[in-house]
Amino acid sequence: MELKVFAPGWGYEHLDQLAFLDKMRHAGYDGFDMWLPTDPIRRKELFDYLQHHQMPIVVQQHQAAGDTFKEFKTAFLNNLRNCAEAGPLRINSHTGRDYFTFEQNLELFDIAFEFTAKTGVEVVHETHRKRALYSPGVANEYFKARQDLQITADFSHWTCVTESMLDNFTAIVHEAIWRTAHIHSRVGFEEGPQVGHPGAPEWDYALQKFTGWWDRIAELHQQRNSKYLTITTEFGPQPYMPSIPFTNQPVAGQFEVNCFMKDLVRARYAPSIS
Question: pTM of the prediction?
């Protein structure tokens, strides 16, 4: 099994695309976790870069929208097709809405299953606020309904939604860990989806909780002899990154925090992976 650590595209939209790609490659990332540019020139530039440097990509599907469920469903499938053009390692999907009915979100999961069956491109569904899997209790109902449902584990959303470190959801977290194909290694806490800096001593309790979950995911992938363990260091920019009042200065640098996480997960998991 091979560990691959991905750089997030989120938060770097202000950079020239090649400057962003070079910055992350030189920082030691193995690949990128991002949405595809709509401009055909920038799109080709990205594809050429990935091919030249032999770097993988996880493509984000987060843009699906519509005034009706029918419109959303059409946009969802079109976006999956668009994401597949990059030849991604997998598609990370922000699937559904928290206000859709159970049956509507289930229909979207089934569209993704059919898409994977036809194309061979794996779609995994992020545990994200506002989406179908926004909370552990709700997610568990979908887990019961679809045995093959795979997720991107971003438990920072669940700690925020439940205002807890998920101590009352042990069985559901265990099930989520079992279904995890990809990790977003952002550390959240009871009142928010992102701590200021995961290396700060005041956030050590949260870091230990999250790394404990990731440890179990890594162990399962090792036992299954998975080809890859894939992790994106997805600490975000302001306002995800807290600010100092009256100055609008972030309490820590997004790039530095993500590099801290990159080095942490690589030191933690690479030595044990064979």
Answer: 0.96
